[in-house]
Amino acid sequence: MNIIDQYRNKIIQGHNLDILKTLPAESIDCVCCSPPYYMLRDYQTEPVIFNDGWKGSLGQEPTPQMFIAHLVEIFTECGRILKKTGSLWVNLGDTYANFNSSYNKPGKSAKVGSTKKAIQTRSGSVMKKLDIKEKSLIGIPDRFKIVMIDAGWICRNEIIWHKPKILPQSSKDRFTNDFEKFYFFTKEKKYFFETQYEPIIDPTRAGEVQKRDINSKMGQKKYSMFNMNHIQKEYRIKRAVWSISTKPFSGSHFAVYPKELIEPIISACVPKKVCEECFKPVIREEIIEFGELSEIYTGQAKKDYKTHKAQNPSDTKRSILKSQSKKIVGYKEIKCDCQAKTKPGIILDPFFGRGTTGKVAYQQGKDFIGIELSEDYITIAKEYLGLSKRLEEFMK
Questions:
Q1: For residue 132, what pLDDT is reported?
Q2: Could you give phi then psi for residue 319, rounded to 5 degrees?
Q3: Among residues 58, 131, 286, 374, which one has the fewest Cβ atoms lying within 10 Å of its Cβ?
Q4: Which CATH entry fits the domain spanning 18-193+240-282+341-351: 1.10.1140.10, 3.40.50.300, 3.40.50.150, 2.40.10.120?
């Protein structure tokens, strides 16, 4: 049995940096997580010791540079356990320099994640030492991205997580922030990725179909047959701005991202099947059917063509769009030469929290590994994931 198999669909309690060092190299298909944001909350019940000798809770470092260095230290270990075909996804928000905020230590009876017990913290005394003017964004995500690229990671995407139903913010001298960033990194130029699609919903691109017809069956049929991308299709490759509302959670945990946010990540970057012999992912290739070839003419070009006056497209400014209807009807698997059995791909979340990553992985028929320091959070995650008998058995 492969060493990593003993951790499948389990939550490991401990400091993620310590746990990551015990996992075998090139054994994980994807890492996806949301680390603590800088100077916002103190989640940890005991301090971590990093390579530079600093001892404390991640996110409470005296400088942004030290915080980012500690993140990179953690993700360097993630890079070691990632397969060459693997990918890393990191959700990270920014922080304002606020010198007047106060720091409150949680009481002994405090519940993890409870604002009433003053778990939410921001240290004004630490902020005053920063070489940043008060009220300025510190630029944590941008600084992190640059340092990661300098460390050798390939940054493939900067996803904008737009939050349509964000709660009102009190500041009246700036615009309301309604987005966060999700970075997509890889180790190598070639990696596992299944293209994700989204429906084309912009009515301005429906050509002759009026807006009121878009939601009707006939309107959708006409709409899908008129496209400006040279290939007619009902869907396009998914864009990098994802509008997804946050979802309420009754448990005592702050940072709970919605399932919809990581569903496309796990769909794209965690293979359904992996060879048990060579550990390579089984590639699924799209099976596509095309409709009949057609030519669409617009404006004066259409009139010129019909009257046979158009001799040279450039002279008459004839606009021609050759297009085909394209439809993905299935997938065919491209396996390795081992002829061995397969197992589901594995995604690891080193900041497991409530366990949303594990829940989505299970729903897609894939496996997960969670690392979590807090025993309270592990209890929350087990309750959240315990809806499935399969997961209950794995976590015994």
A1: 87
A2: -100, 110
A3: 131
A4: 3.40.50.150
